[in-house]
Amino acid sequence: MTEIWSLAALWLGLALLAALLSIWIKVANALSEIVVGTLAQLVLGAAFALLPPLPGLSEPGERLILAVRWLLVALLPYAAVCLTILYVRYAEGAHNPLLGVESERLQVHCRVMQNTLEQLVWFAFCILPLATLLSAREVRLIPLLCVFFALARFVYWWGYLRGDTLGRAPGVQFTFLLNIPLLALVLVRFARSLLA
């Protein structure tokens, strides 16, 4: 079941990436889909297929420890935006956020920080129980999900800094394309474990 959800999320994300790429570089959508699909099949398919099963993860506690460790990767965008805000506040002299003297760019960083924290909480509350519900063979999905989450949040941040709604749309879509199926997967696996 995990493989079905993973493939569905992957292909929907790639279709979105192809559509956005065709808009950004102004080429036909079909051409963009062919290029993105081919590259994804080569890169992502090879990565998951070649990624060996992770050893020593037969117990749910061991898989939970693995998930906590990989959540550090998912935390990287949040930490990066927090450190950026720290620097920008220092550089601009906007030490007191209650005065409202922040530049527009600093306000964007603050919005990215807030949204990234919200999405990170959702993601973490899905990854942690999922780690205990996956088999030892399926748990190799967790590092891939954490890396994809971090990349999606960096895309969101970069897009937000571009200054328009369409700029941040890919990051929003990638994050929700991950978090919504992930929540559904955890709920289904949890319900199955209760009924078993």
Structure description:
By secondary structure, the protein is mostly helical. The protein has a single domain, classed as Four Helix Bundle (Hemerythrin (Met), subunit A) (Up-down Bundle), CATH 1.20.120.550. It is built from 6 helices and no strands. Helix 1 runs antiparallel to helix 6 and helix 4 runs antiparallel to helix 5. The radius of gyration is 19 Å and the shape is globular. The protein starts with a helix and ends with a helix. The mean pLDDT is 80.
Can you lay out the helices and strands and say which pair or pack?
Blueprint: H1 2-25, H2 29-50, H3 60-92, H4 104-133, H5 141-161, H6 165-195
Largest beta-sheet details: none
Number of contiguous helices: 6
Spans of at least 5 consecutive residues whose pLDDT stays below 50 are none
Q: Identify the overall geometry.
A: globular
The CATH class turns out to be: Mainly Alpha
Radius of gyration: 19 Å
- The total of beta strands comes to 0
Secondary structure category: mainly alpha
What is the CATH architecture descriptor? Up-down Bundle
CATH topology: Four Helix Bundle (Hemerythrin (Met), subunit A)
Helix-strand string? HHHHHH
How much of the sequence lies in strands comes to under 5%
What would CATH call the homologous superfamily? Membrane associated eicosanoid/glutathione metabolism-like domain
Instruction: Output mean pLDDT.
Output: 80
Straight-line N-to-C gap: 16 Å
Overall tally of domains: 1
Fraction of helical residues: over 70%
